[in-house]
Design goal:
Low-confidence stretches: none
Bound molecules: zinc ion
Order of helices and strands: EEEEEHEEHEHEHEEHEEHEEHEHEEEEHE
CATH architecture of the domain at 71-257: 3-Layer(aba) Sandwich
Oligomer: single chain
Strand content: 15-25%
Mean pLDDT: 91
Strand order of the largest sheet: 10-9-8-11-12-15-14
Number of strands: 21
Structural class: alpha/beta
Length: about 400
């Protein structure tokens, strides 16, 4: 592997997680991708990341040239399910509700949603704050017309957000920062677009709660609470609110730009603890894949997989297409296909074929209970457990 520097602190002291190379990878829009990828942790700052080398850059170029958003649900935003009741809301609705509990949203202002996709957050925000002027920015123009029709949207910008004129009261980065090659530099530059006392909203996956996220080839950095807060401090933001529970398995941050350049300590013990956690999560992924393969071998036939997103896509590539169908509770997905296999409701799923729950164990247990109330005969296989807690 060609030497690369840490994306956060420029250290050259990177430690490879060797076991990762044996795993398959997927893309962030839920397609199988080649295996043999690299994952490293920084011995100085503890950030888990893909090495910033030629291979990663060319992988990303290939992935984004053919990018599909929410393909399984035909462009409808992924639903977030309440663990016990199974009640669904969209991720944008749930996030805005949590934000509004922490900060008061002024009557009017100007908001920029960077990486606005097909406008899910703009739509929700606009309906809650109709007097705001909304701008959406995206690297492709596929959804331009759709976004320009959203009430409150003033402008859609196609291209890098840094090129936009003016400044904003709120800048929103939902599932953007994990794709950015140099997050500290990027956030620091963004300060010039944020008005005094403006709010930066960040949402990223939490790799410790959701190890499947590590297998996404185009994700540059993989965040823990400690690492995300350090990155914000390094880029001269003050964190106003921080949560690891607003959206399941994601980290949320509200921050304000400051002029103070604080020193950011990152003790070696913390970096080494971060390395040992990610190592254990990568081993867990390997165990989860082995269990799925054993289940298919024992059944003697292709099995079912719960879900139709990242984790389900990844386990399907690990099962080498020994998958017969997917099971999903999201009505916008049921009746469609994913990777050529049908997506079924729990009620309609076959009961004579095992269904593997490719999820962190605790979440899998909760969902298994819920699925069994809908269809008590389902043959559900739970993933292995893990023990370590985040430091
Ligand atoms: Zn570092």
């Amino acid at each position: 592997m060609k030497t690369s520097l840490c994306r956060i602190c420029d250290s050259s002291s990177l430690e490879e997680i060797e076991e990762f190379t044996a795993l398959h990878q997927v893309t962030s829009d839920c397609r199988p991708w080649s295996g043999g990828g690299h994952l490293v942790t920084c011995r100085s700052c503890g950030t888990v990341q893909k090495p910033h080398d030629e291979r990663w850059v060319s992988d990303c170029r290939a992935i984004y040239s053919d990018y599909e958003l929410y393909t399984q649900s035909s462009g409808i935003e992924q639903a977030v399910f309440e663990a016990d009741s199974g009640m669904a809301t969209t991720r944008s609705e749930q996030l805005l509700q949590r934000i509004a509990e922490c900060v008061s949203i002024p009557r009017s202002g100007q908001l920029l949603d960077i990486g606005c996709g097909n406008g899910s957050f703009l739509r929700v925000f606009g309906s809650h704050a109709p007097q705001w002027k909304l701008w959406g920015s995206e690297l492709h123009s596929r959804y331009r017309q759709e976004i320009e029709k959203i009430p409150g949207v003033e402008r859609f910008h196609h291209g890098p957000a840094e090129e936009l004129p003016g400044d904003f009261d709120w800048i929103v980065l939902l599932h953007v920062l994990e794709h950015v090659p140099n997050p500290v530099q990027y956030l620091d530059q963004l300060r010039s677009k944020l008005r005094t006392n403006g709010t930066l909203v960040i949402e990223v996956p939490h790799h410790i709660q959701n190890p499947f996220e590590l297998t996404i080839a185009d994700h540059a950095c993989h965040f823990s609470s400690v690492v995300l807060q350090r990155i914000l401090t390094r880029a001269r933001y003050a964190v106003e609110s921080f949560a690891d529970h607003w959206i399941p398995r994601e980290l949320s941050a509200l921050a304000r730009a400051t002029d103070v350049r604080k020193s950011v300590g990152s003790p070696v013990e913390e970096a080494s603890a971060a390395a040992s956690i990610v190592r254990s999560r990568v081993r867990w992924l390997a165990d989860a894949a082995n269990l799925a393969r054993q289940s298919a071998d024992q059944a003697g036939c292709p099995i079912g997989v719960f879900g139709s997103s990242i984790a389900a896509t990844w386990i399907t590539t690990e099962l080498d297409s020994s998958v017969a169908f997917f099971v999903d509770e999201d009505p916008s997905r049921v009746g469609r296909t994913h990777l050529g296999h049908p997506i079924l409701t729990p009620k309609r799923a076959p009961t004579d074929v095992p269904i593997y729950l490719a999820l962190p164990r605790g979440q899998a247990e909760t969902i298994a209970l819920r699925l069994q109330t809908q269809n008590p005969s389902l043959n559900l296989i739970l993933p292995p457990e893990w023990n370590e807690e985040e430091p």
